Amino acid sequence: MRSFHLLVGTVVVATTALILFQNCSLTGHPFRPASWRAPVDENTLGSGGVGNPVIPEAGKLCPELDPRINAVQVERISPARATALRGLIQSAVPGTVFLLEPGVYPISETLQMNTPGIGIASTTGRREDVILDGNYNSGSVIEVSAKNVTIANLTIRKSYHHLIHFVDNGIGGRVYNVKLEDARQQFVKSSSVTTASDNVEVACSEFQLTNSGRPHVDSDSSDCYTGGIDAHRSRGWWVRDNQFRDIYCTNGGLAEHAVHFWNSSRDSLVERNIILNCARGIGFGLGQTRESVGRTYSDYPNVGVTATTYIGHIGGVIRGNLIIANTQNRFDTGIGLEQAQGALVHHNTIVSTDASTFAALDIRFANSDPEVVNNLVYPKVFNRDGGSAKTYIMNVSVEPGFFMADDKWLLRLDPENPDVKTKIRDQGVVVLGSEIDLDGEDRDAKPDPGADELPPLK
């Protein structure tokens, strides 16, 4: 990855424009709180799941997770017992947590996590100490088909299909502090035939496609059939505080999104993620129609298959994300909304220096009517095929020169830049639910647009 100093030196800087379309009054404007998750249905969601998660405290977004809490029993496993792990998991009693000692665990057959409340994690709490290696064997490394399964504090790599696959009834699952590396297809997949895997949390984890893994990407299904999170018909997922890196192909194909909810998914929250050099960033919905309805809801009875009735994604929040691309002209879109009804897009920073970038934000098709507030974008925003923002307030078209190199994020706003001082600092509007920035710090009473709140003036 080139440094940002080199990155900005090669881009043609466009004229900066402050985009401030106040197409409705701020007085009484419906900035809604982050009611992104439906009320818990006790008939569907098992106890102890993440149906009503505790919102992290500012500055403590990713505390250490001890998977033994609430465990019924704990099984300690060494690498010498790797071949027995699959059978042990399948015969486990509900609530069993498997703690794996440091080492590499070859996985030749999918680990079927089909017992409620079970978990798998490292003994040390460090994800780099335990590696589940699929070695591109058949199937996925882990398949989840039970409520309240926890996968934490380890590394999963080299899957033939998916690193983690949520199938029927994987409700209330949790993926926490996991490194996911080199999936032949999607890294985390959610698909179902009968019971959708709702209310899943993916947090504090790292997704990366490496140079050695890129030649293994599935090019049979499409030229570049891989992506970070790909969820169909899913409701109430919470994707927060993760890093996604280098998910792109070099064979001319376009990889899928780092985070994608579609096929009539609903109430997704995607917040405070860092997405670096991925082909596409975050997507709600895909395409104008579907041959069959992905999922229907009692309060949305008219979801159909025609362009007028089809909804690719219902509701949901995309906020506080940093999306940066310098992928040698392999980057397409930062945030894509396709037949996405009622989405809230708040406080994101999207910057691409790829000359062929399609859009920082793409609002497409007639059912897409997002509320777009307090975002920083470069190079452009597209409204097309009938899609348009219902509300577009205090979004700033930035330049690479507004930023400085940063060891943690590659770049962040330069507080000494004159344009940053006049066009960004303290220029945002208050949005409920966006009180914490990408750093886990509180925003002040005069918030700054973008993912990161600038430090207070001295």
Q: Key terms for this structure?
A:
ten-stranded parallel beta sheet; Pectate Lyase C-like; mainly beta; 458 residues; disordered N terminus
Summarize the structure.
The protein has helices at residues 4-9, 85-90, 418-423, and strands at 17-19, 73-77, 96-100, 103-106, 111-113, 119-122, 130-133, 142-144, 150-159, 164-166, 174-183, 186-190, 201-203, 206-208, 227-232, 238-240, 243-245, 257-262, 265-266, 269-271, 274-276, 280-284, 313-314, 317-319, 322-325, 333-338, 340-341, 344-346, 349-352, 359-364, 371-373, 376-378, 381-384, 391-393, 395-397, 403-406, 410-413. The protein is mainly beta and 458 residues long.
Structure description:
By secondary structure, the chain is mostly beta strands. It has one domain: Single-stranded right-handed beta-helix, Pectin lyase-like (Pectate Lyase C-like). 4% of the residues lie in helices and 33% in strands. The chain has 3 helices and 37 strands. The strands form 4 sheets. The protein has a 22-stranded mixed beta sheet that branches. Strand 2, helix 2 and strand 3 form a beta-alpha-beta unit. It is globular, with a radius of gyration of 21 Å. 53% of the residues are buried.
